[in-house]
Amino acid sequence: MLSILRMNSLISPAVSAFSPHIGKPNFSLAFLSLASSKSIFCSPKSLQSHDLDPNLCPPRPSVRALQARAVQMRGPRSSSGEIHVIVGPMFAGKTSSLLHRIESESSNGRSVAVIKSNKDTRYGLDSIVTHDGAKFPCVALGDLSSFRQKFGADAYDQLDVIGIDEAQFFEDLYDFCREAADQDGKIVVIAGLDGDYLRRSFGSVLDIIPLADSVTKLTARCELCGRRAFFTLRKTNEKQTELIGGADVYMPVCRRHYVSGQAVIETTRSFLEESQQSQTVQCG
Predict the structure, then answer these.
(1) Which of 32, 62, 219, 254 could be 227's S-S partner, Cβ–Cβ 3.0 to 4.6 Å?
(2) Which domain holds residue 36?
(3) 20-38 in b/e burial notation, b at 16+ Cβ within 10 A?
(4) Residues 134 and 241 in one domain
(5) What is the pLDDT of residue 65?
(6) How far is CA 84 from the centre of its chain?
(7) DSSP string covering 221-254, please?
(8) Does residue 104 contact residue 96 with C-beta atoms inside 8 Å?
(9) What is the count of structural domains for the chain?
């Protein structure tokens, strides 16, 4: 009999009460441990009836503590800002599309404001005007970073939608749009030229596309053939990128007439430059 018990102790020494390496089992400690773990699910009254310490039962968290913990788990509240970009050549209806969006947002009960560059003084500084004659009040600025101060901090906080016309003239366009949408939760709608008269990127308008929720590319009608016009042809000999003007300076054209028209303009410009140089030599 003793040999059988020794064999059992060798097979399962961890649970054997007769193992020579384990002292006498303390059944009272095991009972208290079980009672302590069980007491977590008991009310303080039941604990007192069993002569156990009520302090063993952890206090219930308050509703406020649970709400605070839920907020921490959710993290910061996500912003609801948006950025929408409207681009195209001149006479494509960019400003009209911008005003249509702004008026629609205003009709839906949102507070709106429109910004334009103070470089464009053709129709005054207090409103933006489409080529069709439609007007809308605006704030004329040299840079967008001054908008909050000029508009008023409290008024800015109440704004829902910000429209920006002739966006290619603002050097700080990217930073302003990112902060307004990502941090301030504003809906920003910008309209501007995506390319200059040489079909190169104009200002920071194209830099906004990676930030944008939507991008709309408008087209005009070619002034020479009536087809869809994607480009703006400058009709004068000026070379600077920023040259504000209307139909007297620019016209929308298709690809074929842009290439041929640009070639004619370059030829004319070269001829005029050579003529001026020859006249200078003769006068000298």
Answers:
(1) 254
(2) 20-62
(3) eeeeeeeeeeeeeeeeeee
(4) yes
(5) 54
(6) 9
(7) E-TTT-SEE-EEEE-S----S-----TTTEEEE-
(8) no
(9) 2
Burial readout 174-192 (b: 16 or more C-beta within 10 A, e: otherwise)? bebbbbbbeeeebbbbbbb
Q: Is 223 a catalytic residue?
A: no
Q: Kindly state whether residues 31 and 103 are assigned to the same domain.
A: no
User: How crowded is residue 91: how many other Cβ atoms within 10 Å of its Cβ?
Assistant: 19
The set of residues, in sequence order, having a beta carbon less than 8 Å from that of 253 and lying 6+ positions away, is 222, 223, 224, 229, 231, 232, 233, 261
- Kindly list the distances between the CA atom of residue 36 and the CA atoms of 41, 47, 234, in Å, as whole numbers in the listed order: 10, 10, 88
Read off the pLDDT of residues 213-233 as tens digits, 9 standing for 90 and up: 999 999 999 999 999 999 999
- In what side-by-side order are the strands of the sheet with 187-192? 139-141, 112-117, 161-164, 187-192, 82-87, 214-217
Query: Which residue is catalytic, options 82, 166, 171, 273?
Result: 166
Percent helix, percent strand, percent coil in the chain, to nearest 5:
45, 20, 40
Structure tokens at 241: 């990128």
Q: Is the pLDDT of residue 280 over 50?
A: yes
- Same-domain check for residues 256 and 165: yes
Beta bridge partners of 208: none
pLDDT band of 21, cuts 50, 70, 90: very low
The C-alpha atoms of residue 246 and residue 252 are separated, in whole angstroms, by: 11
